Fold each of these.
Amino acid sequence: MSGSRGASKKGKGRDYIIRGGFEGRERLRVLSRVMQPAALSLFHRVGVRPGMDCLDVGSGGGDVAFDLAHLVSPGGSVLGLDIDEIKLQLARREARARHLSNVQFRAVDIAENDVGTEFDFVHARFVLTHLREPAKALAKMHKATRPGGIVAVADIDFRGYFCHPHFPPFERYVELYTTAVERRGADPNIGPRLPSLLEGAGIRGVQMNVVQPAGTHGEVKLITPITMENIADAVLAERLASRKEIERLVSELYAFAQDRSTVVSFPRVVEAWGYRPRG
């Protein structure tokens, strides 16, 4: 789906298949609005509270960081990291418009670099699924967490994606997304792996939860055709489909989404969290 990273390109162990920049930002707005209830529930469950210093990895246009900034105020702060400079510029502009003085954004690739600061709460959503070496990124996140601090990640299991009734273009979209991610060396079904990945990174007291938005109308259904549009470049680059087929799929998926007699879900989303041991 997306924790925002850059435009599709190969290198440095990351091969994000979803468009970055302005187009990617608009997709993330839709995604974040649908996922906001689940995100806020997770933050309350793990104990995010005023005064905490938070790190949001793969923050994209800043939607999650803005919610965290409200939750940790007064006295707390949020740093959002991403490698898409266009989205970072948009996030900084929106933070100013919202008069949020306790949130900042920085261009850092968590898979390659240390943050250099420790935080009470470290979070990443829809990021690890796009990395060839997710354990490496989690090791950096662990290092950025203060002893006793919390690490929480949320990511997808594309095998859980569903619609009703049966719709072959939907199945083709799931196939194209899954294959494109796998071709880049990443895991579109990483969700169930998250607890063991956290344990392997030294996070203790790991717990998990599963959420899956679905509906008969509204933005929960639109993320499917929007994502198909935004993976077109990667699908073409991998020669998985023609431009004509992609255009037809996008049109069919929008029509299916706009039909109130149909049901469309998000991919299954696994949340996992734990803490960095003291001492």
Note: The chain has nine helices and ten strands.
Amino acid sequence: MTVDCRLLPGQTPQDAEGIIRAALGDGEYEIEFLDAVGGTRSELATPLWDALESFTSTIEPGARLVPFACPGFTDSHFLREAYGTTAYGFFPIKEMDSEVATKLVHSANERIAVDDLELGTNMLRSASMSLLGS
């Protein structure tokens, strides 16, 4: 059996193996990790985080960004590894219900409201200008 196991930030395959063995119990089986990818995170005290938080407060006064772990897949770990850079999976939405949006991510019917696409584009522009000092 092949199982896709997502590692949490800071977690190693050995950490996950202990949890897997505890869940499976005793028996004749082997656990082999074919690829240990993911489980990375970026620091929060960065100019990018500040730029995103600043943008967020302009569209929702008093709002604050909150980090969380997502069970989905992201290419952010490849960016962090290849370029030693900061990467967050942040894209603001206001139009589409967040529960609906969560179910649609990478689904066969993935979509986004046009107003949310415009909002995300404005966020990218704002963050770029903030980081470039414009």
Note: The radius of gyration is 19 Å.
